[in-house]
């Protein structure tokens, strides 16, 4: 029972949206973990962690929707890709375990440094592994029939290490910009300094990944440098440059919310760029989204759930953010 | 040690290990979330501070247990693809949407309102906070519903077709969701979760009652209330659970007779008056039960409600479709034995309560304390029974476990398995230690919630925190 061609596109959009929301929300949570070692123990770390304590769990849930969504809507792609990225996937899960429990444990021990290290290590490992998974999928995997046919080290390449490091840098930028928005005083001053460095690293990473990606396979190249793909893709690098300049200016004038929003805009543009590269493949060069799509009645059945529940989810998630709005001090929320 | 094991065996062991560890936390947090909602409701209704004390006391424990459930649950969500990719590909069009519904209707609800529940009491006011607690409790129950739907469809599939490419697809979603074993498995699982929580709460209450008695001081009102509530719950739920479990068994007999044969240790069929095997040592190679202790004729009565009824043994099942008997046979006996002990505990509590001696009977309290972990053991034994009894299939009768696994090299699965074992024992061992430490303290009139306490407690705990490696300082 094949999928419906239009609903397949809708589902690709839904999953892309879920992954994007994950990346930009849990991205700042993980970014704070990545930056933890350069923050001072005590007030600064307590403040930073207090800003995300009520929301990180909900942010992380988008990863379950992203992964679960691929399983549900594109089971063949899920079945091929998950074994292909086995090692970094397991690393990401273990990283998220340490990161997640560190929130609870560090409040219950005298040896905070141990769980601060787990928070940093878990966040960094999860971010790096997510980047490696992205790179491994972009560079393509071996497929035989309906299964992954490569080895269990195939994911490892200079390109996947580059994407891994890039995601760490970019999440650190999001974390710093989130802290600029949500804190004040010395913590905010430090966040500005971290945002400068994170911004420089992120822009360098965007440039490096952008230059490397089109040469991974011919398809990507044609999407970026040949007509008609060029018409759609050309605005993306231009907008990246515009957003990058606006970001630098926002930091210079010590804007509080703009850096975070512009960092999000940079994420959105690179995300669209990735979409341009990879479309219409679910497994690059091997399986298109239409080939990987689940049955049409499953697509429709799930769409009912998404239509009914996603607006509600966005509503109460927004409410939770609004509830815990405002500047946060070391004593945390009331 | 993994050289002679296949990638398949390793993947199976990894799934068994990670899902067993994972389920410990939901088995506790499903019941605890509901208990918290009841406590907060009682606080709002009566205004008595003691309920707020209890709410805050158990909320701190809930926060840790729930957190461990979430992080171990994400592993499960991805493990379908990483280790069971062929299963994911073929069964995906049926079970994928069910799991997507779990995420959409339960996970977001739980995680979205957990922050409000833990940190929001002073921000939203009592009534909205109570709503958040209820929504978290509701979310845990909805989550149980969907995952039970998935598991039950794998046990008793219906409403499906099989496409030329080998993929299952749904022909009738209502039939998929309301498959024959789902209502029974759901009732049995939820009652198991409530019972598990009640036993834990009861054991904590009993611990403090015994301690107060030993120190010669009067028990705190909060301790008495939690013990009484827990024992009341056990007294009501244990018999209900035994009834639900029996009905579940009858349902299994109808749809998976091979599983019942393995659970009962019935290698042979009987035309009438099948015995009830109490204990024995199954020998799959010879297909006989050795050293068995049995009651004649009662097996037919228990399973079919008639001594004259015939029973089906494994001899009627094709050899390649038989489960290994030892797992379901022993696990089933562990579960039933603990269930009977729970019945005893609840009945004894009711007897003591009628005599007005619920808080004075030290031997009853000792039994309640010893039974604290019994719910977890029983729940895991129950899952081992039903999952190993489904073998050698993942989708019962339709898809074999051997053809479900990912094309992975054994060293890859072995390495990840070792990593999971080390990390789980360390991380969840520490979490359990924190929970036990919280339980060792008595709920007191100044009980703080998780938000205030966390900032205040930093650096004020005794220096005996677990697994902290003291470096030379």
Condensed summary:
The complex is a heterodimer of chains A (334) and B (473). Chain A is mostly helical and 334 residues long.
Question: What would your notes on this structure say?
Answer:
The complex is a heterodimer of chains A (334) and B (473). Chain A has 334 residues and is mostly helical. Chain A has one domain. Chain A has helices spanning 5-35, 43-52, 56-73, 75-84, 86-105, 112-139, 158-182, 185-212, 218-225, 229-233, 235-252, 258-278, 289-292, 296-323; strands spanning 143-144, 147-148, 281-283, 287-288. In chain A, a hairpin with a 2-residue loop joins strand 1 (143-144) and strand 2. In chain A, helix 1 (5-35) runs antiparallel to helix 6 (112-139) and helix 1 (5-35) crosses helix 12 (258-278). Chain B has helices spanning 7-46, 49-83, 85-119, 121-124, 126-155, 173-177, 182-214, 221-255, 257-264, 298-304, 326-354, 362-370, 374-390, 410-440, 450-457, and strands spanning 160-162, 168-170, 276-283, 288-295, 393-395, 399-400. Chain B is mostly helical. The two termini of chain B are 39 Å apart. Chains A and B meet through helix 3, helix 4, helix 5, strand 2 and helix 14 of A and helix 2, helix 3, helix 4, helix 14 and helix 15 of B.
């Amino acid at each position: 029972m094949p999928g419906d061609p239009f609903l397949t596109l809708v589902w690709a959009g839904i999953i892309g949206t879920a992954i994007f929301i994950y990346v930009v929300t849990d991205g700042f949570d993980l970014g704070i973990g990545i930056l933890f070692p350069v923050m001072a123990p005590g007030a600064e770390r307590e403040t930073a962690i207090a800003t995300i304590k009520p929301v990180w769990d909900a942010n992380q849930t988008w990863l379950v929707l992203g992964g679960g969504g691929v399983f549900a809507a594109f089971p063949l792609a899920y079945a091929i890709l998950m074994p292909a990225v086995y090692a970094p996937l397991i690393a990401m899960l273990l990283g998220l375990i340490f990161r997640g429990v560190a929130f609870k444990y560090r409040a219950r021990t005298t040896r905070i440094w141990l769980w601060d290290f787990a928070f940093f290590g878990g966040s960094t490992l999860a971010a790096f592994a997510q980047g490696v998974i992205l790179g491994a999928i972009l560079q393509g995997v071996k497929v035989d029939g309906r299964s992954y046919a490569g080895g269990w080290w195939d994911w490892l390449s200079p390109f996947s290490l580059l994407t891994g490091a890039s995601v760490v840098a970019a999440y650190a930028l999001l974390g710093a910009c989130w802290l600029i928005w949500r804190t004040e005083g010395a913590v905010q001053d430090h966040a500005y300094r971290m945002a400068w460095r994170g911004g420089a690293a992120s822009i360098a990473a965007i440039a490096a990944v952008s230059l490397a990606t089109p040469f991974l396979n011919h398809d990507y190249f044609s999407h970026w440098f040949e007509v008609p793909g060029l018409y759609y893709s050309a605005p993306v690098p231009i907008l990246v440059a515009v957003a990058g300049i606006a970001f630098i200016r926002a930091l210079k004038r010590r804007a509080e919310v703009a850096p975070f929003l512009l960092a999000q805009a940079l994420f959105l543009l690179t995300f669209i760029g990735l979409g341009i590269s990879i479309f219409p493949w679910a497994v690059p060069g091997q399986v298109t989204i239409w080939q990987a799509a689940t049955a049409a009645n499953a697509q429709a059945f799930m769409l009912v759930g998404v239509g009914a529940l996603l607006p509600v989810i966005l509503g109460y998630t927004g409410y939770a953010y609004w509830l815990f709005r405002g500047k946060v001090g070391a004593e945390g929320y009331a | 040690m993994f050289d002679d094991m296949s990638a398949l065996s390793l993947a199976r062991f990894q799934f068994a290990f990670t899902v067993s560890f994972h389920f410990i936390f939901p088995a506790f947090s499903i019941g605890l979330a509901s208990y918290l909602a009841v406590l907060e409701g009682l606080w709002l209704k009566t205004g008595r501070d003691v309920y707020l004390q209890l709410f805050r006391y158990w909320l701190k424990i809930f926060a840790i247990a729930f957190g461990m459930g979430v992080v171990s649950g994400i592993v499960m969500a991805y493990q379908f693809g990483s280790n069971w990719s062929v299963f994911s590909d073929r069964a995906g069009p049926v079970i994928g949407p069910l799991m997507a519904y779990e995420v959409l209707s339960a996970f977001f609800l739980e995680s979205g309102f957990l922050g409000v529940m833990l940190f929001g009491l002073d921000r939203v006011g009592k009534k909205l906070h109570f709503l958040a607690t209820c929504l978290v409790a509701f979310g845990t129950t909805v989550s149980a519903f969907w995952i039970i739907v998935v598991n039950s469809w794998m046990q008793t599939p219906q409403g499906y077709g099989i496409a030329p490419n080998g993929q299952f697809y749904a022909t009738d979603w209502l039939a998929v969701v309301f498959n024959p074993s789902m209502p029974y498995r759901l009732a049995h699982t939820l009652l198991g979760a409530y019972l598990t929580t009640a036993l834990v709460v009861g054991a904590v209450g009993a611990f403090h009652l015994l301690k107060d008695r030993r120190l010669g001081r009067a028990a705190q009102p909060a301790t008495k209330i939690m013990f009484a509530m827990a024992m009341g719950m056990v007294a009501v739920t244990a018999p209900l659970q035994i009834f639900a479990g029996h009905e579940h068994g009858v349902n299994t007999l109808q749809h998976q007779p091979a599983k019942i044969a393995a659970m009962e240790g019935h290698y042979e069929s009987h035309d009438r008056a099948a015995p009830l095997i109490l204990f024995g040592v199954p020998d799959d190679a010879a297909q006989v039960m050795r050293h068995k202790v049995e009651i004649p004729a009662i097996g037919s009565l228990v399973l079919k409600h008639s001594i004259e009824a015939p029973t089906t043994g494994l001899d009627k099942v094709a050899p390649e479709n038989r489960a290994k008997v030892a797992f379901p046979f022993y696990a089933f006996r562990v579960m039933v034995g603990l269930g009977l002990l729970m019945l005893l505990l609840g009945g004894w509590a009711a007897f003591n309560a009628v005599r007005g001696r619920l808080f004075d009977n030290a031997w009853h309290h000792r039994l309640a304390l010893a039974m604290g972990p019994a719910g977890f053991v029983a729940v895991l034994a129950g899952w081992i029974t039903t999952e190993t009894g489904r073998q050698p299939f993942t989708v019962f009768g339709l898809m074999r476990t051997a053809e479900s696994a990912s094309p992975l090299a054994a060293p890859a699965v072995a390495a990840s398995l070792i990593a999971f074992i080390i990390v789980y024992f360390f991380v969840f061992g520490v979490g359990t230690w924190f929970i036990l430490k919280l339980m060792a303290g008595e709920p007191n009139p100044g009980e703080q919630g998780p938000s205030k306490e966390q900032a205040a407690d930093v650096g004020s705990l005794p220096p005996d925190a677990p697994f902290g490696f003291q470096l030379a300082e």
